[in-house]
Design brief:
Radius of gyration: 41 Å
Number of strands: 2
InterPro entries: ARM-like, ARM-type_fold, Nipped-B_C, Scc2/Nipped-B
Main location: nucleus
Largest sheet: 2 strands, antiparallel
Number of helices: 51
Family: Belongs to the SCC2/Nipped-B family.
Subcellular location: Nucleus
Mean pLDDT: 83
Distance between the termini: 57 Å
Oligomer: single chain
Strand content: under 5%
Low-confidence stretches: 88-136, 1056-1061
Strand order of the largest sheet: 1-2
GO molecular function: chromatin binding; cohesin loader activity
Structural class: mainly alpha
Length: about 1050
């Protein structure tokens, strides 16, 4: 329909003749009593012209018959409607003798017309012709009625082969000589006047209605229908109602719906010359979507849109979003992101080479102004993209560094040379820009430039020239707060680049060492790590002036010893703790980045001064000092003591990175046990950071060892390799031992109600899962619980982790499903107390869904896991009446499970029938026993009428234990029976299917969807008196028992359920 409308539009590219467009304006879209008779005559002339064209081309008689039958039927329907008013008026006119002759003449003409048409047209049966209330205004003009009668007779008689003349119009239209293309235009013109073609709005409304259906598959089908239409007619998405409906589905709770919506918009944007910024913003925001298919589609789309935009800011935004996806948990998306990022950031430099301006070489310094301008423009996009990434120094340029490293790794020499040339252009352009920004005092862009330089220099250290290294030195002089960030980037560049350079000027290195010593003296605690690591790298790999580090260590140890004595003897003054925090960190950092004991063994002469500090093992010395500052003696120092403990714990974290075996020593484990047991949230948070840094260091150590093994696999095998280096292997096993010991405590922290503790703890759990340091089943309770969190950031982290483990371990992951569900309830109770609910608004479009729906969306992919999940929701309802105590029944937990089952979106009858089947089995066992027991208690008089009870009788403390048990179980079974009734009604499950269902038999299920007209939830307060106050007493207990008796006695399916097993 839309294609036909477009074909007849003057804006189309088909370029039909002007007379076609003219006729399109004049022909009636539909014929009614207000349509001018000239328009109807023109429509008939167009039909006659088409018949003549068909005859001239000598087409099959079937074509002619088709047109005549179709038009004859259409005209007969319209004529019947037009003639209706005249037929109604006929009967009263025949009874009147006072009517004028002209009215009688009209009546005769109408009767004659009816007689002639009766042979050719089948009139509708049962039509009431005596509706006298029809007003005179509803009659069609008699001229139109007569004309429709004549044309109708012409079409049908011509179809039957009779000779019949075409009704003569009042005004003839002169058609030009038509080509076949123009004849096709006439056919299109006449087709557009058919009833189906005028139903566009109605059909589109029906499609849009499906977008609001509860069943996800209907929403997907609707979006696919819109995609098919928009692929031929993109302009439909410019209609407000259609565009709004599709855009809303981008935030749908179903991944498949979101994917379909993104596909529709992606197809639309790819067909547009000018891309809508509004749509771009909506779509690009889904680059962090939890669905793999959505993220993958977005990566492809953004790569295509990049070259469609001319706005540099949008290009920077696209580049930043693609750079972030390099760290995606899904390998295919990470690889696709790398490929697309290389295409948009690096390949445009190929166009620069085509300008032929290489007369003075290809370097940036010798480039022409035009070439430099192009290089600067492309480099500016990269810098702008980096500016939009995480603002923290440690993570901002991590993603771009990965892209640069992966780009040059494993490629042939020729493309590698090209990339290195391009990277050199970028580096030189960045340094040029750096000088300009320094003059302009633009600190923000200056920092972004430095971050970009570090990303390229870390992967390609040879890009930096000695002069550029020298240019950066002045920025280590700090005078303002922003200077610390700048100095941090300069230090990281020096740390990563200087050891890779072949030649170093002695004087420049000595100068740099003096600058770093001054920086260590003045810098804040946040800068100590970067300064110390840079100095250690320079001393260890370049200058070998070990005395510098020995002096720093000696002064730090001396200060810490002095302070320790002061604390132990109670001689603490205001000056006692001056500089202590920095000394604590320096001790840990020096041990992390420089191996004092190993160097003393290898170069005893160069390390002779170390004996003045301590003749024994430096590791033990530093460990004992740092451990003291985390001990009980700090508790007497109040706030100062807490600061010392937190800083010392961070220092130990640095120390553990190079001395991993100390972390599982008895003293360390006692310290960590005490922190978990008695520590403040800040100490626990710091310990989580220590764990994360340690696991990262161990992962790096293992990776480095694997690389060394690959490089040395062709070398001769030494005795250490054959016998095994016990010390090395002992260190490599520390991370696993540590996590197995403290994983339960870490999982508790991951579900803390404190955000500052929850996030670092969950990062540790993520590392444990990805590195395989513990069985994933141990982590799953916390992961599933986190997926129910109202915190969308934590929920997303948990989802990604669950998806990763699900894809890797499959059904093995769900062997303790009941524990996962129970942990999710405990977490919800921690957050909401007694107000726990099994459903809520958790999706992007504020749709109410089950709390466990995110977990279910992953595990439902496997049939076994899906039905294990259903059974885990039912299993807690299984009680043995004789063995059950009142405290065994947690009504709030069971209500939480029932509400989750209530709000899950089931897709097939088997899923609903499975739950109903097990509910019926529960009613046949526990339900039957409880019914007998309740009736027994009534006979004993323990359950009187609630209205006749006094306040003393109502008190729960006066209730017998068996009455409490039966009351609680009655509440539980009432909930499960109400749930069963709701599910059967929501999904329209016939009783016959329930009776015939057997979970052990394989039968093809049918698709089902919720009845959205019905209430989706159960109002517990209205159904069960107990929930009005959440208080159990004798009155509410007896009412629950009575409700239970009523429900189970009226349950049809449970009574006839057969035990198939």
């Amino acid at each position: 329909i839309k294609s036909s409308q477009n074909a007849l539009s003057e804006e189309t590219d088909l370029l039909l003749s002007e007379w076609v467009y003219d006729l399109n304006e004049k022909l009636p879209v539909r014929v009614d009593k207000d349509t001018p008779i000239e328009s109807i005559e023109l429509l008939n002339q167009c039909r006659k012209k088409l018949m003549d064209s068909v005859a001239e081309e000598g087409m099959s008689a079937n074509v002619t018959q088709f047109y005549l039958c179709h038009w004859g039927f259409t005209e007969s329907v319209v004529w019947t409607k037009a003639n209706k008013g005249w037929k109604i008026a006929r009967e009263p006119k025949s009874k009147s003798v006072t009517k004028k002759d002209d009215s009688k003449e009209v009546e005769k003409e109408s009767d004659s017309a009816n007689m002639e048409i009766d042979d050719n047209v089948v009139e509708e049966k049962g039509e009431d012709l005596d509706q006298e209330e029809m007003s005179q205004e509803e009659k069609w003009p008699i001229e139109i009625v007569n004309m429709l009668q004549d044309t109708c007779k012409y079409y049908w008689q011509s179809c039957l082969g009779f000779e019949c003349s075409f009704p003569k119009p009042s005004k003839s239209y002169t058609f030009p000589d038509m080509s076949r293309k123009e004849s096709a235009g006439l056919v299109e013109l006449l087709s557009s006047r058919q009833t189906l073609y005028t139903s566009y709005d109605f059909i589109m409304s029906e499609i849009l209605m499906c977008l609001d259906k509860d069943a996800a598959y209907l929403r997907v089908k609707s979006l696919k229908a819109i995609r098919s239409i928009s692929s031929q007619s993109p302009e439909i998405l410019e209609e407000g109602r259609i565009r709004t409906s599709v855009v809303q589905r981008i935030h749908d709770t179903s991944p498949s719906v979101r994917d379909a919506a993104v596909e529709v918009i992606a197809k639309y944007l790819s067909q547009q010359q000018d891309v809508s910024y509004e749509l771009y913003g909506l779509v690009s925001g889904r680059i962090m979507d939890t669905s793999v298919s959505v993220r993958k589609r977005l990566v492809k789309l953004l790569g295509e849109l990049y070259f469609r935009f001319t706005d540099i800011e949008v290009k920077k935004d696209i580049a930043s979003k693609l750079i972030m996806r390099i760290g995606d948990n899904e390998v295919t998306i990470s690889q696709l992101s790398l490929k697309v990022t290389q295409k948009i950031l690096f390949l445009p430099f190929k166009e620069i080479e085509k300008d032929g301006n290489d007369y003075f070489g290809s370097s940036y310094a010798n480039a022409t102004k035009d070439r430099k301008r192009c290089i600067d423009s492309l480099t500016g996009i990269i810098t702008g993209a980096v500016a939009k990434l995480d603002s923290s120094v440690s993570t901002r340029n991590f993603a771009l560094t990965q892209i640069v490293q992966k780009t040059i790794d494993g490629i042939d020499e020729e493309p590698r040379d090209w990339y290195e040339k391009i990277f050199q252009w970028i580096n030189d352009s960045l340094f040029d820009r750096l000088m300009q920004l320094d003059q302009e005092l633009d600190t923000t862009d200056f920092i972004n430039c430095l971050a970009t330089i570090h990303s390229f220099a870390k992967s390609c250290p040879n890009l930096l020239r000695e002069i550029q290294i020298t240019i950066l030195q002045p920025y280590l002089s700090i005078t303002e707060e922003d200077d610390y960030t700048i100095a941090s980037y300069v230090l990281m560049i020096y740390r990563d680049v200087l050891p890779q350079m072949k030649h170093h000027g002695r004087s420049s290195i000595e100068l740099l060492e003096r600058i770093l010593l001054q920086l260590l003296t003045r810098c804040p605690l946040d800068m100590v790590s970067a300064s110390a690591s840079c100095l250690c790298v320079i001393v260890s790999h370049i200058s070998h002036r070990y005395n510098i580090l020995i002096k720093i260590l000696g002064s730090s140890v001396a200060k810490l010893r002095q302070t320790r004595e002061a604390i132990l003897h109670g001689n603490v003054t205001e000056r006692t703790f001056s500089g202590v925090l920095k000394m604590i960190l320096l001790c840990g950092l020096l041990c992390q980045h420089f191996e004092f004991d190993k160097r003393r063994q290898e170069e005893p002469h160069a390390m002779a001064a170390l004996d003045l500090v301590y003749r024994g093992n430096i590791g033990i010395l530093v460990y004992d000092l740092l451990k003291f500052y985390t001990g009980e003696d700090m508790e007497e120092l109040a706030e100062q003591g807490m600061t010392l403990r937190t800083t010392a714990l961070q220092g130990l974290g640095y120390f553990y990175s190079s001395y991993p075996t100390f972390m599982i020593s008895e003293a360390s484990t006692q310290l960590m046990d005490k922190i978990f047991r008695e520590g403040t949230p800040s100490l626990k948070t710091k310990l989580m950071h220590v764990f994360q840094e340690f696991l990262g260091a161990e992962e790096g150590r293992i990776g480095k060892r694997d690389e060394e093994e690959k490089k040395g696999k062709d070398q001769r095998i030494g005795i250490d390799t054959l016998l095994g280096n016990t010390e090395e292997y002992a260190e490599l096993g520390v991370n696993g031992s540590l996590m197995q010991r403290y994983l339960p405590k870490i999982l508790e922290c991951a579900l803390s109600d404190l955000t500052e503790l929850r996030y670092p703890a969950f990062d540790v759990v993520s590392t444990v899962i990805h590195c395989g340091l513990a069985h994933p089943v141990l982590c799953m309770p916390a992961i599933v619980a986190a997926e129910t969190s109202p915190d969308i950031s934590l929920r997303t982290k948990a989802y990604y982790m669950h998806k990763y483990a699900h894809d890797k371990y499959g059904s093995l992951l769900y062997i303790q499903m009941n524990e996962y569900i129970n942990k999710s309830f405990q977490y919800q109770r921690l957050l909401f107390g007694s107000g726990v609910q099994g459903y809520g608004k958790r999706g992007g479009d504020a749709k109410i869904e089950a709390v466990l729906s995110l977990s279910y969306s992953i595990l439902k992919e496997h049939k076994k896991s899906r039905f294990d999940f259903f059974y885990a929701l039912i299993k807690p309802f299984l009680f043995e009446l004789k063995l059950t105590n009142p405290e065994d029944i947690d009504i709030t937990f069971l209500k939480y499970l029932a509400e989750n089952m209530m709000m899950l979106d089931f897709a097939t009858t088997n899923e609903v029938l499975f739950l109903v089947y097990h509910i019926d089995r529960l009613l046949m066992t526990l339900g039957a026993d409880l019914l007998s027991f309740v009736q027994f208690l009534k006979k004993q008089g323990k359950m009187g009428e609630p209205e006749d009870m006094s306040e003393e009788d109502i008190d729960i403390s006066m209730m017998e234990e068996d009455v409490i048990t039966s009351s609680k179980l009655s509440i539980v079974l009432c909930m499960i029976m109400l749930l069963k009734k709701l599910l059967i009604e929501l999904y329209d499950i016939p009783d016959q299917e329930i009776r015939e269902y057997n979970p052990n038999n394989t039968r093809r299920p049918r698709d089902v969807m919720k009845d959205i007209e019905m209430s989706q939830t159960i109002e517990w307060e209205e159904e069960i008196t107990y929930f009005q106050h959440n208080c159990l007493d004798r009155r509410t207990g007896i009412q629950a028992c009575s409700k239970f008796e009523y429900l189970i006695m009226n349950d049809a399916t449970a009574i006839v359920t057969t035990d198939f097993e």
